[in-house]
Here is the input.
Amino acid sequence: MENNTAVDLSFSVPEELSGLRLDKAISEYYEQISRSGITRIIKDGGVLVGGTPAKASYQVSTDDRVEFSLPECGIPDIVAEDIPLDILYEDEGMLIVNKPKGMVVHPAAGHYTGTLVNALMYHCRDLSGINGVLRPGIVHRIDKDTTGSVIVCKNDKAHREIAEQLAVHSIDRRYRAVVHGRLKDDRGTIDLPIARSRNDRKKMAVDPSGKRAVTHYEVLERFSEYTYVECRLETGRTHQIRVHMTHIGHPILGDETYGARRSKVHAEGQTLHAYFLGLKSPATGEYIEVTAPLPEYFRNILDKVRSV
Here is the structure.
């Protein structure tokens, strides 16, 4: 007997996907779904944008609401896995996890196991469903090779409240990074708009047509060829710190995407750590501050750059 069970999926287009064709935007947002499957649903008139069927060539804009149904058999099994979690904070509405280097936040093509979501499904009985069955609990994410604090929501109320705090930039987010070169000023602000790169759609770039992006930085320690910095996000654009630091001539050590250059110190992936979060707990209404200790790999990198 044919299985007609379907799962309803929907998302609001994030700014980093704005300007893409509809089929490409869905493919990038839901990496777990085959491109051919997406194309078939669009051809059948099954993908709605703002409540209206849209063609594959439709160019999406930020905050467009995209909705469609996918046969349950087309969704890969996301299983709970007993993977240790370094939980920095937890209450009834959310938890903050210290993500290790190399861990993908949610399942995607080639990464259906071993992700943060797999571990969370084992730890939590319930997770928010706003981002659907493929991204339960995930309200924001950091890159695979970026370490540190990730906020996870246990219910939809918490998800909406954290999403609102992110939208109005009221969450204090600070990162630690090692960058190439010696920054001249002890502190500074980079206020440059960021958009998807016109030359490589997988990358972001400083572009006058982009969204305003503001990064505040402060030098923590200078070395002969590198600088240890803290970066505070006033806005939260995709790859913001990596793009901004590269643009001012100080790419992050190990960043092969934005700042690849010859280096006396080798790093596997960008040396970037989500160090501090200050935010209002949706469950208690209280302001909390959470610090993620520097991981061993980062401390080792600091020892190496000090000795160069």
In short: Helices lie at 22-29, 35-43, 116-123, 156-167, 240-247, 296-307. The CA atoms of residues 153 and 159 lie 5 Å apart. The mean pLDDT is 87. The longest helix spans residues 156-167.
